[in-house]
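Hey all, quick one. A colleague (J.T.) asked me to put the FE2/S2 (inorganic) cluster job into the tracker so the inputs and the structure tokens live in one place instead of scattered across chat threads. No bug as far as I know, just bookkeeping. Sequence used:
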Amino acid sequence: MEITLSVNGEERTSEVEPRRLLVHHLRDDLGLTGTNVGCDTTSCGACTVLLDGESVKSCTVLAVQADGHDVTTIEGLAATAAGDGDGDGSAGAPLHPMQQAFHAEHGLQCGFCTPGMVMAAVSLLDENPHPTEDEVRVGLEGNLCRCTGYHNIVRAVLAAAGEEVTA
Amino acid sequence: MSILGTRVVRVEDPRLLTVGGTYAADVDDPRLAGAIHATYVRSTVAHAEIGAVDLDEARAMPGVVDVVAGDEVDLPPIAGVTNEAMRRPYLARDRVRFVGEPVAVVLTERPEQGPDAAEAVVVDYAPLPAVVDPCDALADDTVLFPEVGTNLVGAFGTPPTADAGGPDASDVVVRQRIVNQRLAACPLEVRSSAATWDLGRLVLWCSTQNAHGLQHAVAAAYGLDRSEVLVVTPDVGGGFGAKIGGHPEDILLGWLSRRCGRPVRWVETRSENMVGMVHGRAQVHDVTIGGRPDGTIEAYHLSIVQDAGAYPNMAAFLPRLTRTMAAGTYAIPTVTSDARVAVTTTTPVASYRGAGRPEATAAIERAVDLFAAEVGLDPAEVRRRNLVPRFDEPHRTASGATYDCGDFPAALDRALAAAGYDELRAEQRRRRAQGDRLALGIGLSTYVEVTSGPRAGSEFAEVEVRDTAGGDGVEVVVATGSSPHGQGLETAFAMLVADEMGVPLDAVRVVHGDTDQVARGVGTFGSRSLQLGGSAVRGAAAEVVDRARRLAADLLEAAPDDVVLDTAAGRFHVAGTPAVGRTWADLVAAAAAGDAGDGAALRAEHDFSTTQPTYPFGAHVAVVEVDTESGDVRLVRHVACDDAGRVLNPLLAEGQRHGGIAQGAAQALYEQVAFDADGNPLTTNFADYAVVSAAELPSFELVDLQTPTWVNPLGAKGIGESGTIGSTPAVHNAVCDAVAHLGVRHIDMPTTPERVWRAIRAAE
Ligand code: FES
Ligand code: FES
């Protein structure tokens, strides 16, 4: 089947098998390998991307279901923040505020969960701009990280929400 | 001011945050053009003789290039660790010994064609009895290797005797069997590799923790010289010990590539990973602790049965570390141990974060709590009474370790103070008096562990100052034998170089995990990389500075001893006359032109080695709430004082502690690899295996303590595993403590709601 997705703001038309998963389409057909696969039971969230602005696990979405929709992956995230009033003003800001917060708070180690985690966190703040620590923890329950113990991920999300964080 | 000891954010991050890492599955290399994809056919039974293997139907499946069964592979089987005769073939032949063992492999044009083709391979299994429990395996009723005649891989030490001052001679003797359950490392990136032959050399990309170790293993397996094997480690999405070296599935790829004449790639699924990648822990302990009613511990014996899984791997070695660390933080006059290692019809066991040391700590820390309960004293008091006092000179323990330096009482005091121990106990008493449904549990652990391996250690580094291509500055290229995969070593090593050489952080480029680009190396495991790899980098950088100083002296027409490096400016000048100097760029240009000195490049290699390991230590306090009606446990606070010597970058050290604490707490509360009596795995994916999530954990409270070691010039001890080692027993003790007033004495890990509920009911 022929599908057209807007991926990171760019129209991408391809021929895909009906059973092709969105994550494989992004990784193998479009070469966007930032999105990872960590499991086969929809448990880990490594594959999380934004579909029309909302986080989805791209291992549970068929590529054809995304036909005609907007997909944002980690590769395109920073561009969505450029000129969004974050004071930076420059088009093509190097980092989205959430990416910046993960960097500043050391919210990543091996980086494998990171693209999915960052996308889930962006979506979380979109829905709840000022979450409590518990809300962040529950909100990220579907995204596993084996390295960080979540401590600094939670702090990064709170920091991105403009909250004071202490070590 | 020196950059050392400061919270430098990671240089690794921008790439990982914007385009993501390049993990093995992402590698896009021209040498892999036209690669075919391997899918392993895995045993569905735990123990069986293999009859006919029918590959014909699979050969006819769409996209199939080749199908291979075990009898065709002519690589010699892998010798078992400790017991060489227990050999593992790359693909099972004659017999399978665990569910998930590769039996055949299909090679397809596209990855998605693999699973269907693998399904079409028909294997005739004549089932044999499974043996899942290592203690049962020792009875040898079912033997995995008939040619060996026993399941015993090896036996070490002897059981205690009362007349030899063992614990049985004491007034108070407490015994307990404690199961240190089998765990899965669960790096978020599964195993993945790719292989091809390029200009007569085998090239292997692999998600591993030690490229050079794997290069060695591959060369040995193929009968090649090391120079004929290139191993490249792309970004690695976590290892935790389970990715030390390579698995048979990785190593076989070169053989498959040679056979098919095409590059071969392999990416497993999580379900394969959970049964095919080595597991960790899997020890059964019998502890006996003896002492006096005043809380003095006189003797301790640890008896270990190690489950090696189906083929003896690192598991055969783990009890050695456990035995060495048996005495823990205590000055116990008599400490003895014995260990037996047995094969079972389960996934092989090897290293997992801590590898033998968490088991030692878990055993003695639980034993000390049981002893404290027996004599009716507070566990903090019993610890204080028996801890080794502060020592600056090496301390030889009764179990044969030589601790470098430590201050165990300080760690305990700091952790207790930060936790507010007395108030917590008061709150516990209050809840108990009120019959509160939510019981409060407070758990302690004091730990000491061994890092950089059980003996002396070494690591390689090379540092070279180069012209930046097209730029006007210089770059410092660091080639390290360490193999970072999340630890932030690129940042750590850049800090060391920046400090030593007076160059900006972003002028340093760290190269690792490529056996062509790094001459030799050991890798990243055993919490070794900063102390050994970092010391090597520092040593190499110092040698480059020395060369540069001599070159600058020539150019400045001064004696080398009179020339100093102004590290703030990255410039050499004669002491006292800073106006005239030579920058790194000047020196690189001069060296290239052969203008002065011996014309040698500004490059140095350094092999750093130590005479003994280091022993980080600490104390943790865990606070749990247990719902006495449902058995639900919640970790509400975790306070950790971890002393890893001098800290280079607190941000990185804290990150290691956080991750370690989470994994360690998860062992106490949630995680367990389980098999049924027939050897069928019950935890084959992330839906069944309880990898801890953010929702189940609190933020952690870290307490600082730094006792620099004399073993290396950085004063650093390992920090990668401390969190795991300290947290498991603290959380475990907390759960047992929470329900002690209900008459519960011990609950094995993981302390799931069901187990806690049953223990409470049984004590009623
Ligand atoms: S890969 Fe999609 S949830 Fe794990
Ligand atoms: S940073 Fe490694 S899994 Fe999250």
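Adding what we noticed when we looked at it: The two ends of chain A are 51 Å apart (CA to CA). The longest strand of chain A covers residues 2-7.
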